[in-house]
Amino acid sequence: MILxxxxxxxxxxxxxxxxxxxxxxxxxxYLNISGLRRQQDQSIQKLKNTLIExxxxxxxxxxxGMFSEVKYFYNKSQKNEIKEEDAKKLVIExxxxxxxxxxxxxxxxxxEHKIIAFPDKRFIGQSMYNYLIPNTKRYIFREVVSLSKEKxxxxxxxxAGKPGGDPKELFPKKSYFKLFKPWGWVLGTGVYIDDVDxxxxxxxxxxxKKINSIIxxxxxxxxxxxxxxxxxxxxxxxxxxxxxxxxxIVIKDMNKGNLKSxxxxxTKDEIGRLSRTFN
Length: 279
Hints:
The protein is an alpha+beta fold. Helix content is about 60%, strand content about 15%.
């Protein structure tokens, strides 16, 4: 308010110009950052979709491969090449020892929620109907059985702790399972997908660094432009205000009765023409 009420035209004009410049610069910076954020969100979503689809393909590949093995032994039993009981034992043994990735495995359960094959032998033969994933409210095997009956095969998203880690620290996990109807067995496997969150965080950190760099460059540019612009503006205003001051002196002299007072202004602009009118 001092700038506007101080009676100094130079400060008033400078203040108005700087306000307009700040508004336009701020608007331009906001639009640029908003556009970058939209691009970032689209890129991150595309990356997440790509990673999740890759996980889904891998899970389906594993289970479909295991499913083929189950069908193979089942068909042999149907041809009386081996007993059905022996065929089931071979499948259970194969599933129990199968591993892929770092620690991933395949499990078998029936439609009564009972575990048939699982890496932890303590669970074999146990009903998992009332099994809750620690620190969650998910009865995971109830969901698996329900979806298997409804869709035969399905994906399931949930959170679970990692083996050997803090059980209270939950990580996103995706499972895929498929029902082998002749035996009423569900083949399933799952994988942690927290790598998706890590990649998202990595991209967002890189984006934030880019935004900070843009803001810093804009601030530096604003400071430089303000300094240069202020000097140029002051120079131009002096060219305007000096003749006006001369005219004011002439007007004051005339008010005092000195009609011989003259303003020696030789510019060809409006102020020069006004001066010649007074003269």
